[in-house]
Amino acid sequence: MANPSPEISIIIPTYNEGDNLATVVCDIFAVAVRRGYEVEVIVVDDNSPDGTGREADRLANQFPVTVIHREGKLGLGSAAVEGFARARGHIWGLMDGDRSHPAEVLPELIDPIRQGRCQLVLASRYARGGSVEYWPWHRRALSQVATWLGRLFVRVRDPLSGLLFFERSVVEGIPLHVRGYKIGLEILIKGRYEALIEGPYTFRSREVGHSKLGWSEYLNYLHSLIHHTFYVLSHRAERRGRRRVARREIRRSENQKAPVAERQWGPCPLCEADNAEFLFVKNSYRHARCRLCGLVFVNPMPTAAELDAIYQNPLYFANRNEWTYGYNDYFGEREFYAALFERRVRQCERALGAANGRGRRLLDVGCAAGFLLEVARERGWQVAGVEISRHAASFANERLGGAVRNGTLEQAQFDNDFFDCVVMLDILEHVADPVGLLREAVRVLRPGGLLLLSAPNVRSLSARLAGRRWFHFKRDHVVLFSERTLLRAIDAVGLDCFDLRRNGKMVSLNYLFARLKCYLPALGNFLLATVGRIGLCRRLFYDSWTGELLAFCRKRDETGVDERLP
Asked: Which of 160, 172, 270, 476 lies most in the core, judged by the most C-beta atoms within 10 Å?
C-alpha cells in the first residue's frame, strides 16, 4: 500500500523486532493522520529469525510501508543507507523498531524542518527535559563515556542519538562509512546543514525482546571514531577554505555600493532634517548620522519588500552568521528568553502597581515565537501579539491558540486605548519609521498605560569600542538610537519616560563566546571548542552590559502629540 507522493520517509532498521514492529508502525501513522503528514515507512530487515520480515510484509498491506529484505545481519548503519536509497520524501528520519523512540515526539522533530527553521533535528536524551526510563548502572556509565567521545566531534548534548530527522539534502550524495550502529554521529559530522535543533525526549526501556548491544558494537564504535578522526583531519583544509570564501563574500557585500535605484533616499526618520553625514558602508547599507538630532540610520533606506524578505527567510531565527542578520538559534535558546521575559513581565506588573496580570491586557509587538506571551498568560494576563515573520507567527499561534496576528502593528488594527501594557523589545531598530510605530503603539495603549521598550544604544561603550564592527550594525537594523534620541522619540509621541536604564539579558558564557566571534572569530571559536564544553559555561546569569537601553514609559492622559520633533 504505497504512498504515491510522501513528504516524509522514516527508515526503521530491524532485527528480531516482530513483537514490537506493529506497535511502532501504528503509532507513527496515528501521529501522521492527526498532523496531516504524508508519510512512508521503510523497514529494512536483516533476515530476522523471529519473522520480523513477514510481519513487515503484513503491515505493508495495510499502511504505506516499503520492506527491504536482506540476506543476513549486516548492521544498522548499512540498513539505514539502504533505506535512504529507497526513500522518496523530502524529509528523512531514523527510528528504532523496539519502541524505545516514542512516536509522540515526531511533530517536534518534523515541524521545525517543515517550517524552514533548520535542516536537522536531533532528539536528545541529555538535553534539558530529556531522560532515560531505566538503565543499569554499567550501561549508563558506558553511554556517558561513549557520549563524551562523540562530543569531541560535534557540539551537541547527545551525539549518539538514533532518533533524528533531516532534509534529504543533508546526506544526499555523501558517502557514509557504515560500520556499527551509530550512523547518527556520522550524519552530524559529514552532513550539509546550516542549522540544527536539539530537543529533549525520554528514551523508553525495551518491553519485549532483548537488546542487540554487545561488546562487538562497542568495538565497532571505537573503530568508527578512528575513521571520523581521519575524516575531520583530512577535511580541515577544505572547511577552512569554505570559511575563507564565506568571509570574502561577506567583505565584498559590505563594500558594495547600495542599490540606490531601488532604495529610498530620505531625511532623518526622527527630526526630518536633510543634512546627514556619511559614516560607512556595511552589509551593503550606507550608514549616516543626522547632524541635527544625532540619530544613526541607513540612508538610502531599504524598501519594505527588501526588509520583509529578510524576516520571511526561514533561516532568520537560525542563522549561524547572526552578525549579518537574525538570530543564531532563537528557538534553541528558549530558556534564555523565558528567564528574561519572566523578569520583564514582573517589572511591568510592578510598574503598574499590580501583583500579577489578572484582568489586564498585554500586547507584545514583534513577539517572535511568543515566549513572552506564554509567560504573561501564565501570570494571568490577557495576551495578544503581532509578528511579521510568518514562520514565527505560525509557531506562536500553535502554542497560544491564535493570539498572534501576522503582519505589522498598523495592519493588526487594534481598538483605541485597548491595552494596559505594550511591550516592544528590540523592535524600533528594525523599522524605517520608528516614530510612526511608536505613535501607533500609543494609540492602542490606554491613558496611563505602560509601554516597555528596548533598543541598541549606538553611544554605548561596546559600540564606541567596536566601531563599524559593532554587533548591531546588521542588515535587519536600519535605525539606531542613543539615550538622547530615544528620549526625544518617546516625548514626541506623548509618552513620559519615568525609568531609562541599561538593558540586561540572560546569557551564558557560551553565548558571550559566540558573540565574541563577531569581533575575534578565531578566539571565539577556540573558546567555544575548549572552555565552552564545560557545563558551567552553559549556566545562565544576568548581564546588564549588553550595549542596549531599556525604557519604561507611561502614556499621558492628554497626549498633545507633536507632529515631529523641532
From this structure: 270
